[in-house]
């Protein structure tokens, strides 16, 4: 049986190597990045950190399962005009469809329990 220390992963946001999301950053003023914590592209389940530079927009997408995110820093405006702020925890149900923009930049923790499909 494996020990707890063999099964543990610890990341600190202050010293991560963020991965540029080139497709999402294309034709924008700033860039969008992610750091994969546990997200599995095959199942569409898991968590990641998502960072948007000021004045960027995520690609429009639909969720086949629930999405939850926690705003660590900055602002995020959903496609229906709802503004999320630092400290907000958001749950979107399966079937939700949206894109988000940020004026000042945003960092969030995102968890999916089902794949997302770009519109």
Q: How is this fold's topology laid out?
A:
Layout: H1 4-7, E1 19-20, H2 22-25, E2 32-36, E3 45-52, E4 56-57, E5 61-63, E6 67-78, E7 83-85, E8 89-92, E9 97-98, E10 100-102, E11 106-113, E12 116-118
Antiparallel strand pairs: 1-2, 2-3, 3-11, 4-10, 5-9, 5-12, 6-7, 6-8, 6-10, 6-11
Instruction: Compute the number of helices.
Output: 2
Average pLDDT rating: 95
Q: Count the beta strands.
A: 12
What spatial form do the alpha-carbon principal axes imply?
A: globular
Question: What is the element string, with H for helices and E for strands?
Answer: HEHEEEEEEEEEEE
Uncertain residue ranges:
none
Strand percentage, roughly?
over 45%
Percent of residues in helices comes to under 10%
The termini sit apart by 44 Å
Task: Round the Cα radius of gyration to an integer and report it.
Answer: 15 Å
Largest sheet: 9 strands, antiparallel
What structural class should be given to the helix and strand makeup? mainly beta
Keywords:
7% helix, mainly beta, 2 helices, 3-stranded antiparallel sheet, 9-stranded antiparallel sheet
């Amino acid at each position: 049986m494996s020990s707890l220390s063999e099964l543990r992963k610890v990341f600190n946001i202050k010293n991560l190597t963020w991965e540029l999301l080139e497709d999402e950053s294309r034709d924008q003023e700033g860039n969008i990045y992610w750091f994969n914590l546990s997200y599995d592209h095959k199942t569409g389940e898991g968590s990641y950190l998502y960072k948007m530079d000021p004045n960027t927009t995520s690609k429009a997408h639909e969720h086949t399962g629930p999405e939850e995110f926690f705003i660590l820093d900055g602002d995020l405006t959903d496609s229906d005009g709802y503004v999320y702020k630092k400290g907000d925890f958001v749950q979107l149900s399966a079937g939700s469809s949206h894109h988000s923009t940020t004026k000042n930049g945003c960092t969030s923790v995102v968890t999916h329990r089902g794949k997302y499909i770009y519109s």
